[in-house]
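Quick one, T. Sequence first:
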Amino acid sequence: MTPPPLRSIVRATRRNPLVWRYLFNFTPTITYHLERSSLVGETARVLSELNRDGIAITTVKALLGDESCCRELATAVDRLEREQASTMEAMRAEANVESATGKKTFIFELLNRNPVFDPDSIYARFALQQPILQVANAYFGMLTRLRYYNVWHTFATDSQPRESQLWHRDREDLLILKVFMYLSDVDDGAGPFTYATGTHPKGKQRQEAESFMEGNVKRTTDDQMLNLIPKDRWRRGVGESGTIIFADTRGYHKGGLARTSDRLMYTCMFTSQASESEEFMLRLQLFAPPRDRARAFALNASKQTSR
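Structure tokens:
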């Protein structure tokens, strides 16, 4: 019998939570526990809800207060929308057409598919505001990496749900924290982010939902999800502009099925340093790390990408 290749053995070993934490993430785990401080107020509430349900919803005002750089972000996004208006409208015409390459034609990424990483940009600085990074590190129980940021403009369509509009789990790491901040009001007609509570790795739901393969990704329909999780446990992220959603996307989730109005939102993602996923941002230059250890760690790429 042919033994499995070393890469497969390492990958299987990495999926063990204790090995993942205390071997592949030993230094960021120990560093975090030596330096951590207790969360209070809204950050503590968000963390508690996130640990319990896999999703927590708050607002810019409640979590970040008056010192938030939300207005700067909104201004920057408005400028991007105006600069790319003609390209965006051309893409809108294709939003109902399923791409042969798996591209989500219903989403326009304002910073391109793989943003050029800039630690001084408003997009990086928004992600690394202290309350957001505190929640990310506390949820993982270690210092985390900022792996991605972008701004998504989701087009209203009338095609059948596909790709991320169907239930699925992300695969980048054992824990994955994504943050979504709405830059437009999002109701049921604007394709709100939706989460099946308790299906995250810290949750109690261990059974997998029925699924089918779409490319190389498992997808689950609403009817299939109902067989596993009742609808009263589907958390819909509806809210006004300024709503912030934290979600561990290792749990079942879907979103972007906009029918009556477009959705505009900023998003970023945190993983451990042990994530084996591709680098999502182009890192073209070295930069001086900030003095704050948590921010410096978050900005340090786990894999360098260049042109």
